[in-house]
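Task: encode each sequence below as C-alpha cells.

Item 1
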Amino acid sequence: IGTMTETPTSMPGHTRLTALILLALLVLRLVCVMVSPLELYADEAQYWRWGQSLDWGYYSKPPLIAWLIHTTTGLFGDSEWAIRLPAPILHTIAAWCLFLLGRSIAGSKVAMMGALGYALMPAVWLSSTVLSTDGVLMPIWALALWLLWRVRTGTAGWAGFAALGLAVGAGFLAKYAMLYFVIGIALVCLLDAPTRRGLFSAKGALAALAALAVITPHLIWNAQNDFATVGHTVDNANLGGDLVNPENILTFLADQMGVFGPISFLALIAGLIFLRARRGSEDARHERWLTCFVLPVLVIILVQSVLSRAHANWAATAYPAASILIAIFFLRARPNRWLWGVIAILSAIGFLLTPDFTLFSRILVAGAAAGGIMIFAFASRFRPEGLFWAGLTMHSVLGLVMTAAMIAPGPLSGPLDLDNALKRTRGWDALATQLAAYVDETGTPTALLTDEREVWHGLDFYLRDRIDAPLLLWRYNEGAHSFAEQQPLTQGMDADVLVASYRPNRRPAIAADFESFEKVGEITVPLGQRVNGCPIRRQLVLYHASGFDPLPRTDAWVERFENETMDAPEPCRTGD
C-alpha cells in the first residue's frame, strides 16, 4: 500500500530508470526503422500519397498523419524510413506522458510500471516500426489524460486548460477514435466531482473553445467534400449484415490479448471485476477515473464485434489508462497461487490459438510462456507484481524477436514462420521493377489499370516516375469506394490499357468492360511460404485492353460474374 501513497518525488530512481529504458527502446526502434528492408504496406503508401499535398482532410482519415509524413519526407526524402520515422518517437512520448500521469495518481513505481507496460505491449512494439493513425493518436491521448488529471487536481491553470483543448482537437485530427476520450470525459464528469468542477468553469470553456478551434477547419473540409471521411468511417463499421455474431466475442478477447499482452489483458479483466479498491476511498475514486477511459472503449468495440466485426486495434485507446490501472491492481493484490495458475493456462491457450504458425511452433511458444510464468511465480513467491514483470519479460522477448525479423527478414522470417505475416511489406519494389521493364520493352500504355487496392498503393509508391501513364483502380461499383478508385478510367485514356490483374475472380468482369481484352504475360514475385509449405507469391497477370465500355453494376451483373474466374493459378496441394 505504501507505493500507492508515495509523493511524486519520493523515488527519483524510478524516474531515471524509466527514462533510460524508454531511451534505449527508442534507439533500438529507430535503428530498426532505419535499417529494415521491409517496404511500405498499403496504408502507409496511402498516407504518403496524401502527404504529397496538404489539406484539412483526406478520403478516409483526418489529416494529421499526412501532415507528419509531409514534414518528414520533406526533410529526408521519400524513403520508407523517413515515412516511419515519427512512429517510435511518438510512442516514446506517449509512454512518458503516462509516466507523468501515473506518478501524479499513485507514485513513481506505478508510473514506471505503467510507462514500461505501455512501451513494451505487443501492439506498441509493432506500431513503433510502422506509421499508423493509432501511433499518431496515442501520444495525444496520453497527453490529454495527464492534462485532464491536472484539471482534476487543480494544477492545470489557464495554460493547462488551453493545452487540454488543443490536445483533444489534435486527437480528432489524428483519428476519430478520440471520440472515446470525449465519452470518457462525460463519464468522469458524472462520477468525479473535482473533474466536474474543473471543467464546468471559465477555464473549462476555454478548453472547449480551443478544441473547437482545432477541429472546425476539418469539419468545414468534410462539409465541402460530401463528408467523405465521416462517411468512410461509418461504412467501416459494416453494420449492414447479420447483426448478431456472438462467436466474435472469443475473437475479440483473443485479439485484445494479442494487443495488450495476454497477462496484462487478463489482469485488467480480473482487476476490473475482483480487485477494486474499497468503496468510497480515494484510491477507488482514482481507479474509477481511469476506468472511465478504459471500459467504455472495450464495451463499445465488443458490441461492434458482435454486431458486425472489429479489428484488433480498434480498442487500442483503452490501453494507455489501462497500463496505469493494471500497475495499481498488481501492486495492491495479495499473493495468490490460483491467479498465477489460471493466467499461465489461459496465456498458453492464447498462444495455441495464434493463426499463421505451425502447430509445433504454437506448442513450443505456449509451453515456454506457461513455464516462464510459473518460474516467475516461484521466484516472486506468487506475488501478483511478479505477474506484471513476467508479462513484460514475455513482451520483451517477443518484441526483440519481431525486431530482429524486421531488420533481417531474409534469413529469419522463414524459420520463424513470419513469411505470411510480413508479405504485405515485401516484394513491392521488385513487382514495380518487373512492370516497368515490361513497359520499357512493349511501349507506354495510355493507362495502367489494376484490380486490387493494396496493389494500387504499392505500385503508386514504388512505380512513381517510372511509367508515364495514369495508374487507375478498376471499379467494382458504380462510384469510388476507396481513395484509389477516385480517378475513373475514361474514353480518352482507353486506347491501349495495360491491365495488371491480381484477382482471378475479377478478370471476367473486367474483360466484359472492354471491347478487346488479350492476355500478354504475367509477372511474379516470391514472398516465402506458408506454414503448410505452399509458396506465397504476388502475381500480376497482364492484359492489353481497349475500348472501355463498362457494364451497368446491377444485381444481374453481380450474379453473372459471382462465381467466374479467369487465368487462375493452380491451387497448392502441399498442405493436403
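Item 2
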Amino acid sequence: QISNVGVDFIEEVSIKTANFSAEYGRNSGAAVNVVTRSGSNEYHGSAFLYHRNEGLDANNYFSNSRNVPRSDLKYNDFGGALGGPVIKDKLFFFAGVEWKQIDRFSNPSLQTLPTTAMRAGNFSHLTTPLKDPVTGQPFPGNIIPTNRITPDGVAFGNFYTAMSQIAQSYTDTPTASNALFQQENPFRWRQEMMRLDYNINTAHRLTARVMLDHYTLTDPYGTFIGGNLPTVPTDRNRPGWNLQMNHNWTISNNLLNEVKFNYSGNNQSIDPVGDVWKRSSYGFQFPQIYPDGGTYEDSIPFGSISGFAGWNSASMALISPTKDFALTETLTWLKGAHTVKAGVLGIYNTKKQNGRSQYAGNVNFNPSGNPKSTGNAFADALLGNFRSYSEAQLDPVGLFRFWQVEAFATDGWRVSPNFSVEVGLRYTYHYPTYPEGNNLTAFAPGTYDPAQAVTVNTNGTLVPGSGNRYNGLLRPGEVPDDQKADVPNADSPAVQSIPIADSRGIYEPQHLLMPRFSFAWSPGGDGKTSVRGGVGLYYDRPEGNLYFGLPNNPPFALSASYENGNLANPGGAAVPALAPWGSMQSVSTGFKIPRSWNWSMSLQRELPWWGLFGEIAYVGSDGSNLMRRPDINRPSFEDAEANA
C-alpha cells in the first residue's frame, strides 16, 4: 500500500468481505476499494484538527515499577480540502492537504546488561569458578586481569556502558532485566491530493487524480531491523506517489466501458542516524574478513552474548524504491436479467533493493560447545573467544521485475425477483519475479551431486580443492552487458561455472484459472430475510521478500563462517581461510503458486425489535502450496541422535 488516503479526501469505502466475483483477483481475502471525492457545481471546503496528548494516557506498568514518569505524547493531525467547478457542468476539481505530526516514545523494553564491575573483568559475584581457557585453571577470585582483556573486549565494555547511559533506568547489579529502554520515536507525514473530473459529453467522462505522500519515521531500533538494544536508530524516508487516469465511455444505454491507468510507487530508504551504530564509537579493532563490503562499513557487527541483551547492525539499512504500473479495461453489458462483465488487467512492477547482508559481521558468544570458553559468555567476549562468527563479502543490489496479465468474465443473472446468481472465471498468466542483472543463485537439491561434496576439517574449515563449493546451485542467466558494471563478480569463473536454470524466475511461469460462484436469495418475498453463499478459487502472488535476499548467495557474493576462534583474527591463521558459506536462501525450482479455496454461507434477518439486524454465517477456506522456508540443511532428530 503506497498511499494512506486522508479521511477528508474519501467519498466512500467499499469492502467486499466475500469477494466471489471474478472481477477481483491478485490476492484472496477481502477487496477494499477507496473512492476519492470529486468536485461539483458548488464550492465546498473543510478544515480540521485532531489533537491528542499524554494527559489521558496511563503509564506503562514497567515504567511505573521503575518510577519512570509517563512518556510525552503530542499527536496532531490537521489539514483542509476544497472542491468546486472550474467550468460549470463540465470541469470540476477537488484538492486537499493533510499533515500528521506525532512526537512519541517507543514501548518500554526490559533488557539485561552487564554491570560496571563485569565490564572491567570482575566476576566475583559468580558462585561458579571462571576458567582461564589458556591454563585451564580458575581465574583467582573470578577476576580477569586487565592485561588479558583484549581491545575488542574493552570495546564490548564501552558498548554496554553507552547502552546503560541511554537507558531510561539502569540498576548496576548482576540481575536480570536491570535496564529499561524507552526511546524517542517521532513520525512526520504529509499528503497532497488533487482530482479533476471532465465531462466531455454525455457519453465520455475523464478523471485524473494525483496523490503525493511525504513520510519520515525515526525508529530508535531501526525500521525492519529491530533488536533488543537501540543500536541502529534510523530515519525511514518514504516519499510516495499515486497517479490514476480513468476514461468512462457510455457506448449505449446498456453497454459501458472503463479504461483505468494507475502509476504508483515510492523512493523508500532507511538510513542509520547518529553514532551509536559505529565501531569507532566504542573502539572495535578486529579485522573484517571482507573489507569494504557495504555502505556502512564502520558499523558494529550483529552480536549476541548468552544471558545478555544482543544487538543488530547498520548493515540492515535499506534502499527499496519501487514503481507499479497497472492498466485495466472493463466492459459491462446489461441484457435483460443479465449483467455481464469482462475485463483485462496488465501489471508491471519494478523494485531496486539491496540484499541487507551481514557484511559488518555477526558474532556470537556462548559457552556451550566452545572449548575456549571461560564458562561465562560476557567473560568470553572480554577475551574475544567467540562461539561463532560469520561475515558476508558484499551488500549486493538487485533490480527486481515482474509482470502479470489477467482476464476475467462474469455473469450476474437475476433468475427471479428474489434470487440471483453470479458465475465467473478469472485467468492469470503468472510470471515469476526476476532480477534484471540475473545476479542471484538458488539451490536445487535435484541437481546436487554427492560425489562432488566438499570435505570439512575438524576445526570447521574446508579442505582446499575438495569437491565443488557451488554444487547444486543454479542462476537465472548470463549477466547482461549493460548490468555488469553494477554486478560484482559477474564474469568470474565461479559465476560462469553455475548452470543456468530453465526459467529466469527460477520456477516456471504458470497459467492459473480461478472459477467463482455466488448466489443471493430472499425467501418469502418480504425482503426481510436473505441467504447468501459462494465459493471461489484464488491464487496469491508471492511477495518480493521471497527473492530479495537471493543476491547474497555465492558466487555473486561470498561469505564465510567460523567457530570457536578469537575476534582479533576471526578467520584464523590465514584470513580468509576457506570456510563453509554463511546462511543462504533459495526458491524451489518446482515452486507452485499458493492457492486457496474460500467459501461461505450466511443467513441475515431483519429482527422485529428496535431496527436490529441479525446474521449467522459459516466461513471456510482450504489452502494448499502455502509458502514456507524450511531449513533443508537441518538434520532429522533421528540423524542427530545417531551422530551425537
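Check on item 2: The helical segments are 61-65, 116-119, 151-166, 377-383, 493-496, 637-642. Residues 151-166 form the longest helix (16 residues).
End of task.
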